[in-house]
Specification:
The structure is a homodimer. Helix content of chain A is about 40%, strand content about 15%. In chain A, the strands form 2 sheets. In chain A, strands 1-9-8-6-5-4-3-2 form an 8-stranded parallel beta sheet. Chain A has a 3-stranded antiparallel beta sheet with strand order 7-11-10, with no helix packed on it. Chains A, B: It holds the Pfam family NMO.
């Protein structure tokens, strides 16, 4: 069967489809549970979550499904806090804050590095079956602790080099993120510009250089993309944008609508929201900040600085100042229940297999 | 059979593989004929060819094969010749010329627009079976004239919009070039930045919006890429980099070696060589010109200005000042005869089909 792979075996799931752990309230317990109940792997996007919220989400998901699910965590980064950079960024952001009626905010952002360790403890406490990582590789002790507790570990790579680093660190499997992907780039061991490798080109090259199973990500939205990924050498896929527009997703309705009506040319790369390159639908914020991108504070500082703007814009239903993360094929997006989306994909794959001349040999 | 598609029918070829019409002496008559004799479609990269050279190549190919082959032409562009821009570019290029011992050259480049019409006349005269176009859509009269003479016309698109424009213009089929591709971007109806869509994301979106058959291009190097492209909705693939390193290819040996030893992170986008974005392996020229790219003359003016540097560097076997066009998966490149490459791909596909769980149902 096409849906029986090394990854479905290892994760004890029926369909080699993982719902990306998108951060920022998108991965509701309902979405995660729906994906897992449909035979895929639902994933909590715990990147920006407080430990309390993560704990309560895990509890809710356990009530909604007995199937495996995962948690995605962001490996913490510790950029230098440069007051001048922050002031310059705030100067650029101030007119936008004024326009939205936000009170002036000039606090120096505080990076709380203990959150990650607390998140890990919660994953261990609740024996969450799968833990994936973005923005780097955690310390080996953490990887070993998780594995010793029977938790499957998944790293993220955007180049062959990053994939090899993940394998060497002991990760069980790896998400290989092509440049087609929406949201933040997972790059951590090279220049961002040089890590923009298309999914089509990247998957087979990584497959030739690592022995741990590969999860293809970036530009995969339907049965064609899933099947093509398996042909290219992946053992599963991870889909973000496709699940973001699902009914159970907690994404803002404006965000969903923008994707459902979007085109591939609108999904551009910007560092302006967070200080780290990410793909989202072009809007006023991206256009206005474009020329200043290189001088903005690093992630996660810039992310903290724009937080008030993004959340106020969402409240005011003004999508021009929100981050509208989206991969390169919004034209394939649908507004379905997650289970319907997975069923549609399965049917599409079965149809390709039964109709495609290649299968008839 | 997997290799029986709408495109193999229409082109009367046995394998849905087209060798890209790479310009600049790469597509020797031997390469073109070898690809066609092996069951694919060889293609003359006539972009920068004089009518005389095109005519003699066609004659040689007809001696080497009775199978169909094609010619790729560049639709001419007529940018304003801005003397200031040219002088600024020459100032940047002068130290490189001096270093290579090239005599100062300050002629205003002349764009010869009659070449394209002469090339079309030769295609008609020799009844070349296939004519493909890059950098735009030729006038409708040309498309109709070719089609009325039984010549199959192929356009190039990098977005859904460009694909639709090609279909509306009457093209028989269309090369859909993802951002994974090497060499020049074929974009012509939008901003270059917004036309960098990964092959994985682009093919299915185009397939949903046009009814003419699609030839996938960008990041396809082996059986995995060919089969994945067919699954995504293409009826054939076009491969450039994979054929560039073949034994029959006329590419400079330094260029071949650079690809054979290259990595995916080295294949970057630059406008510095030609005034138009293209993907090639990073070298001194690309690095030095990076900060000036936006101020350079448009294609083809900048291309003419760097001509002496590129050819002198090749003579001196100095790859740092040559254009080393390359797609995003040099790690998959091989130095084989074209027929061996095609046979390897066929065997790989047959192996995937016979071993892949999906096929065993």
């Amino acid at each position: 069967m096409w849906n029986h792979t090394k990854i479905t075996d290892k994760l004890s799931i029926k369909i080699p489809i993982i719902q990306a752990g998108m951060a920022g309230g998108i991965t509701t317990p309902e979405l995660v549970a729906a994906v897992s109940n449909a035979g895929g792997l639902g994933m909590i996007g715990a990147g920006y979550m407080t430990p309390e919220k993560l704990e309560s989400d895990i509890q809710k998901i356990k009530e909604l499904t007995s199937k495996p699910f995962g948690v995605n965590l962001f490996v913490p980064e510790h950029p230098a806090v440069i007051q001048e950079e922050i002031e310059r960024a705030n100067q650029l952001l101030e007119p936008i804050r004024q326009m939205l009626g936000i009170e002036k905010k000039n606090d120096v952002p505080q990076i709380n590095t203990s959150v990650f360790d607390e998140q890990i403890q919660i994953v261990l406490k609740y024996e969450v079956p799968v833990c994936s990582f973005t923005f780097g590789i955690p310390q080996r002790e953490i990887i070993h602790q998780l594995k010793n507790n029977g938790i499957v570990t998944i790293g993220t790579a955007t180049t062959v080099k990053e994939a090899i680093l993940n394998e060497e660190a002991g990760m069980d499997m790896i998400v290989v993120q092509g440049s087609d992907a929406g949201g933040h780039r997972g790059s951590f061991a090279g220049s961002f510009d040089d890590s923009m490798i298309g999914t089509m080109a990247l998957i087979p090259q990584v497959a030739d250089h690592v022995s741990i199973p590969i999860i293809a990500a970036g530009g995969i939205m339907d049965g064609r993309g899933v099947l093509a990924s398996l042909v290219l050498g992946a053992q599963a896929v991870q889909m973000g944008t496709a699940f973001l527009t699902c009914i159970e997703s907690g994404a803002n309705e404006l965000h969903k609508e923008a994707i459902l009506n979007g085109t591939e040319e609108q999904a551009v790369i910007t560092s302006a929201f967070s200080g780290k390159p990410a793909r989202g639908l072009k809007n006023e914020f991206i256009i206005k900040m474009k020329e200043h991108e290189d001088a903005l504070p690093a992630y996660p500082i810039q992310n903290m600085l724009t937080q008030d703007i993004r959340s106020e814009a969402a409240k005011q239903k003004n999508k021009e100042w929100m981050s509208l993360w989206c991969g390169q094929n919004p034209r394939l997006s649908k507004n379905l229940h997650a289970a319907e989306l997975i069923e549609t994909i399965i049917n599409q794959i079965e149809e390709i297999i039964s109709n495609f001349p290649l299968i008839k040999g």
